[in-house]
Every structure is written in C-alpha cells, then in structure tokens.
Amino acid sequence: MNDEPVMATNDDASECKRGAVQLGYWQDNYISLFAKQIQRKAPEIHRGYYARVKGVETFIHKFLKKAGESAQIINLGSGFDTLYWRLKDEGVRITNFIEIDFPSVTARKCYIIKRNKQLLEKIYEQDGEVKLSSTDLHAGTYHCIGADLRNISELETKFQQAEINFSSPTLFIAECVLVYIENDCVNRLLSWIATKFKSALFVNYEMCNINDTFGDVMLGNLRARGCTLAGVAACKNLETQQNRFLNSNWQGSKAWDMVEVYYALPTTERQRIEKLEFLDEQELLIQLFQHYCICIGWLGTEFAEIDINDR
C-alpha cells in the first residue's frame, strides 16, 4: 500500500488551517511554524476547518473537565497538529501527551520542533530534558513518535517508550485518519485499546453519509490524489461510525454530523466568524457539514454522559 498520498494530506490540512487562522477564524500561534505556505481556499472550506477544530476542541475540554490533571492525550495520525502548544498556552496540565504518525511525518515534525525556540521552550518549561532520535522526540510529558497504526506490537513498544499509563483516563483523537486504514486493522486497534485502557474517550472526526452524489465527488477527489480510502465502509452513515466502537468492545458510542456540531458552538463565535468572509449561499456549506461527523466511543462510565449539546 502506498502511504505517500495519505501523508500528503497532512501538508494540505496544515496549509488550509494556516490560511483560516490568518483570516481570524481561530487563534493558533504555532501553525505558521509548520506550514510555510498558505492555500487560499473557498470560505466553505475555512468554515469547515473552523467547525472541525472547534468541534474537536469542545470534546477535548469536556474530557479534561472529567479527567482532571491525571489525563493523558494520544493524538493518532497527528501530522503537524499544534494542540499540545495551544493547551500549554491555556494553562492546561496533562500527565502525558503523545503524538503518533508515520515515521517520515514525525521526522519532519521533530526537525521543525528542534529548530524553533518557540516550540522547544514550551516543551522545556516543565520537562527539562529532551531526547531526540531521527523520528521520535521524548520530553517528560510530551512525546512525538513514529509508528504505523496498523502494527499493534510496534505501537505497544512505542507506548512503553512514551511511559504510557494504562490506568489513567486517556483521550484518543483521530481526525481523518481511520478512513485510510483497512477495517480489520482499525477493529484490531480499537479492540486492543479496549483491552488495555480502563477509562478512555475516543474522538473521531471523519466523513459520513457518503452514499450519495456529493459523497461520490468527495471520494473521487481523494482517490484522484492516490488515497485508497481502505476504511471507507465505516463512513456510510452515523450508525456505521458508532458500530465500529460497539463491535470492538467499547462501552458506548454517539455520533453527530457537523451541521449539529456547528450549531452547538457558541452563537457569538459563529456570528463572529460568519462575518469574516462573504458566503454566497449556505447550501454548499450545509452539504459539506452533512458529509462529516464527530463520533465518540468511551470506556468507563465517567464519559458516557458527554454530549455535544451539554453545556
């Protein structure tokens, strides 16, 4: 399987995020260090990324509220995500923060971190010593590790190196990651997590409702770029997204399309970003939102009550 086109989606996403941040959709003081170019996209795309970033953030904060300072975060297929540094700026304390991606992606990320004082300082603040290899970085509470999510034994070894605590409440984040992995590999990964962790919340942002014309166009665009979408069967609808967790021994699962997620965000914030760029008509945006979702799965009863609509 050729993983290069999948890795290239990281650069696209980083450039889109930088473009949206520059226009004022949300604040991120670090994305410009990872994405040097800006891809100016249509307003619908910027709003889509805004909903994605803020939607996932909503669940991160709901998790942290329940988990407290013993929390761990594991960002699967993290690419050039800047979450660790943004949470640091908010004063959030986390016991362990682990980012995992293909070794060639983490090698680039480690290189960028190493060369940027602004990034290194945040890691040094409480962690002192930084251990670097060509693809991995370990520094107290922050770990950036190169691994293939399809290889559970490699993952287990890397987790041990990152001093993971299987007893601590753990948040897993995956954004447009599982769709590129064969279903049996995803099921194996989810089942393995369910046997290892007592208390966990998994937040998955991904495509859904793809069995229509709009979905065909989306999938066609990705396939044209060489992305094989090995796990697309789980993206059929919200139910198939939830079943992936329920069939892998997770205690429960819920899912919302991005229309619901977007309108659950604070009204004042929505009104603010809707003034940033003129949108000719809402129809395309709504269609886009209908074809993406956030699905959560949980282990342990403490996360069962989490919902996009609770305040």
Automatic annotation (TrEMBL):
Record keyword S-adenosyl-L-methionine present: yes
UniProt key word S-adenosyl-L-methionine: yes
UniProt-listed Pfam families: LCM
GO CC terms, sorted: cytosol
SUPFAM superfamilies: S-adenosyl-L-methionine-dependent methyltransferases
UniProt signal peptide: none
GO MF, one annotated term: protein C-terminal leucine carboxyl O-methyltransferase activity
Catalytic activity: [phosphatase 2A protein]-C-terminal L-leucine + S-adenosyl-L-methionine = [phosphatase 2A protein]-C-terminal L-leucine methyl ester + S-adenosyl-L-homocysteine
EC identifiers of the protein: 2.1.1.233
Record: residues binding S-adenosyl-L-methionine: R52, G77, D148, L149, E175
Record keywords, A-Z: Methyltransferase, S-adenosyl-L-methionine, Transferase
GO annotation, biological process: methylation; regulation of signal transduction
Function: Methylates the carboxyl group of the C-terminal leucine residue of protein phosphatase 2A catalytic subunits to form alpha-leucine ester residues.
Family: Belongs to the methyltransferase superfamily. LCMT family.
Protein name, per record: Leucine carboxyl methyltransferase 1
Organism annotation: Ignelater luminosus (Cucubano)
Record lineage: Eukaryota, Metazoa, Ecdysozoa, Arthropoda, Hexapoda
